[in-house]
Amino acid sequence: MTSSPTGIIASLPFRAKLTVLTGSSVALALLLACFGLFGLQFQTDRTLASQRHAQLASVIASNVGPAVLFGDHEVAFETLASADAIKDVHVVEVVLNDGEVFSQYVRPETDPATQSVGKELFQSEIVIDGERVGSLRMQVAHRTIFDIIAETWGAILGLFLLCLALATLVSRVLNQMAFRPIEQLVEAMRSIERSGNFAMRLPPEHDRDFAVISTSFNSMLSVIERSSEALKKNANDLREARDEAEQASTAKSQFLANMSHELRTPLNAILGYAEVLRDELGRNGSEQSLEDVQWIHTSAQQLLELINGILDLSKIEAGKMELDCHDFKIGDLVGEVGKMLEPLAAQKDNRVSVHVAKDLGRARTDSVKVRQALLNLGSNACKFTEAGQIIIAARRAGQDAAITVSDTGIGMSEETIARLFEPFSQADTSTTRRFGGTGLGLAITQRFAEILGGRIEVDSKVGIGSSFTLIIPLYAEGSEGRPEGSALMGTPSSTTLAGRLVRDSRQPLALVIDDEPSATQLITRIAEQAGYQVLAAEDGASGLSLMRQHEPSLVLLDLSMPHCDGWEVLAAVEKDDALSKIPVVVVSVSDEERRTYDAGASDHLTKPISSQQIKEVLDQYAQRRSGRVLLVENDPATAALYSRGLQQMGYDVSVVYNGEAAIGLLQSDEFEIVVTDLDMEGTCGFELIENISQIPRDARPSVFVVTGLSLEDAQSDRLEDQVVRVFAKNGLSPRRLAMEIADRSMPAHPSQKVA
Amino acid sequence: MKRNLAALALAAFAVSGLSSPVQAQSRSADQLEAAIVFKILKFVTLTTRSEESLSFCVERGAKSAPALLSLQGQRVREQRLAVRLVNGQNFRGCDVAYLRDTSAAAIEKARAKGRLVIGRGTRFIDANGTIGLVQTGGQIRFEVNLDEAERAGLKISSRLVRLAARVER
């Protein structure tokens, strides 16, 4: 671009450009003037030469007249030869009236053959006393333009250079004068750029053109100054408004979190006791009361859903909802959702059908939120459809997955669709009365879709049905993140209420650490039903003390407590080798599962919990297991997590971090169980499993796989014959792993019952 | 009649000679001389007594008198030649005197203010004649005495002087 002359000129600074342009113009003008001078010189020379030659011819004619008259050839020739001094004259001759050449002078260097070519002929009559005696003819070779140039170029070039130098000098001086206002303007702009001071102004300019610029510039500065002040004021107002809004938002979120916690705690008790009552009434055969209790349970469950919805919404709006992305088959998830919806659909005589496109493949996103969004859409479809169809169709749309939940229900008007995703909004109040619901489901679903980087599209016609399409990227941005803690909910201080324990060695001992008496009593009730002796503590400190004192089989720990909360208990247990053997299951309204696992918890049950969940945990730890387990896991943190869970179950666990070490250890020691990851450096899990499968059947350990990999069908088929079970690492708690292994390996020995 | 015809032919020749260079070798000496005299008159400024005519007097007996007489009526500038024969040296009223006798005495007698004195001979101008005609081989040339011309108040063109065989001053 800059190689051409115009490109070079265009790339120059303005000042240099102007100098080049001025210099070029002057040089061109001077060049033209030089050519003009050459032309003028040529023209003048030609004119003067013509005049001179005409005069010369006339003079020679006059002088040669007497010689002609008297026939004096000698004198005539002398007279003609007098033109010798004039270099232009090549031939001079006297021609008599009869045409005879009387005398002729030819310049010696003239070629006779071409003596008349390109030459001008001057003629002058020879008249003596009024009578013509003959004529003088003179051939003249004029000087050409090149002769003129050759003769004068030195002088003209000197003149040209002198003029150019003078013009450049004058141009430079004038440029400085002309650029002074521009320099002032530039300096002012730089000064403003440095200082940000829009209050400065350019001084008045005498040049009218620049006066317009400086005046305009000053006006512009005034406008900017005013705008800047207004912007500052607006920014301050906005900042204040934002701070106020953030405070209000924080307060709102805090309030909602507090309220949710406060509401869920008693609800936990209501639900739990309702279940206990229901079980007892069922055993007693009080049908009427059983129905009443069922109503209490159902209503409490609805209230819990509402509170969970509000909590989710407040989390989303406070920006605290985080993604937990992992790799999974999205078609399988859609199928699961379809199956989960079937009982709900059946209630209103609806049929659920699922269609998954073959090219849908895998996704890496938050499956929990996708599942919840689809369940929300599906349950809505079931709710607003009677004796119809619910169709869930999943397909791939470029880099997105598009999952459509259609129904043949009551449909919606456009007005309804417009406010469909607003929280607490339903079609109308009659809808709420008729169909129930909180109006939070779609709002949460839409926000989940947005968090996942997608959207929801709606198509509906009154009386025909509705169609909701969840469109989400197959690969969500962001990564797995540890959920941050919800607001800590303060409770009044309490004292340890642990009573004196008369330990029955035939029964396992459970320690419940919870500051909420209703929760403690509920768990105690369930634990006792499960055959446990129960010890309770109202805060962490007393809980730790009881742990050291009684070494319970199981600790059920709340997180939010006064003085010493559950986190501190977990930290203390982690540090104490004796205590770390005791399984600690967190039972809390908090849903920070991963954090509790990392802190050393065996499992995390989110309140409100069902008695079934508690029973499952209690049953699991009521009997200890024995046996040697080889844990093969390349991530030390994960290895520690699962190792502890297995040890708490009673297993003797050896940990190695790669396949080679595992093979080596298997050759030297005997293990009943091998728990291995698949993705490891060096010898991978597949090779290890292959190696184990070569061991004779009676000496071969049972193999369990815990992996974060998403297995291809071929890989799953390959593993099917070689391992007992494959667990997805995502969300797998140490307790769950231990329980699954215990259930699928050798049964508990009666002697291994917990003492 | 024959004489008149001869004179006419000579005059015609003389006139034609004015328009062409003199070829001395191809013409008679007298005719040539008359033609030269006529040409010389064109380059001499005389103060004549008449504005219309120039009195050209030929001393009777001069060899070239007939040829000179044939110049009668010819124009020199604005004036016509009035050629006549005079006896002895009676050149009164003559603007131009052509002498037969070229002796010093005769020349002296013919000399006058405003008069051009022409004669033959190499010593003519040495004897204070104004213009002397001399024959060199086949050519007739002339000599000029500028002092005499000046004395007589005559102006002789430098161009004529340049052609002169000898100039006395």
Task: Describe it.
The complex is a heterodimer of chains A (755) and B (169). In chain A, 52% of the residues lie in helices and 17% in strands. Chain A has 755 residues and is an alpha/beta fold. In chain A, helix 2 packs antiparallel against helix 4 and helix 13 packs parallel to helix 14 (566-575). The two termini of chain A are 90 Å apart. Residues 479-500 and 748-755 of chain A have low confidence and may be disordered. In chain B, helix 4 links the parallel strand 5 (96-98) and strand 6 (116-120). In chain B, the strands form 2 sheets. In chain B, strands 3-4-2-5-6-7-8-10 form an 8-stranded mixed β-sheet. A two-stranded antiparallel ribbon of chain B has the order 1-9. With 169 residues, chain B is α/β, with parallel strands linked by helices. The model of chain B is unreliable at 1-27 (pLDDT under 50). Chain B is built from 6 helices and 10 strands; from the N terminus they run ααββαβββαβββαβαβ. The chains are: A alpha/beta (755), B alpha/beta (169). Chain A binds chain B through residues 62-63, 65-72, 75, 96-98, 102, 128-131, 133, and chain B through 18-24, 36, 39, 42-43, 75-77, 157, 159-160, 162-163.
Strand content of chain A: 15-25%
Largest interface: A-B, 20 and 19 residues
Oligomer: heterodimer
Query: What is the average per-residue confidence, as pLDDT of chain A, rounded to a whole number?
Result: 82
Overall helicity of chain B: 25-40%
Helix/sheet category of chain A: alpha/beta
Topology:
The complex is a heterodimer of chains A (755) and B (169).
Chain A: H1 5-11, H2 14-69, H3 73-81, E1 89-96, E2 101-106, E3 120-128, E4 131-140, H4 145-195, H5 208-284, H6 287-317, E5 326-329, H7 330-347, E6 351-356, E7 362-365, H8 367-383, E8 389-397, E9 400-407, H9 414-418, H10 429-435, H11 441-451, E10 455-461, E11 465-473, E12 509-513, H12 517-529, E13 533-537, H13 540-550, E14 554-557, H14 566-575, H15 577-580, E15 584-588, H16 593-598, E16 603-606, H17 611-622, E17 628-632, H18 636-648, E18 652-656, H19 659-668, E19 673-676, H20 685-693, E20 702-707, H21 713-720, E21 725-728, H22 734-744
Helix pairs in contact in A: 2-3, 2-4, 5-6, 5-12, 6-11, 7-8, 8-11, 13-14, 18-22, 19-20
Chain B: H1 2-19, H2 29-41, E1 44-45, E2 53-59, H3 65-69, E3 75-76, E4 79-86, E5 96-98, H4 104-110, E6 116-120, E7 131-136, E8 139-145, H5 146-152, E9 155-156, H6 158-163, E10 166-168
Parallel strand pairs in B: 2-4, 2-5, 5-6, 6-7, 8-10
Antiparallel strand pairs in B: 1-9, 3-4, 7-8
Helix pairs in contact in B: 1-2
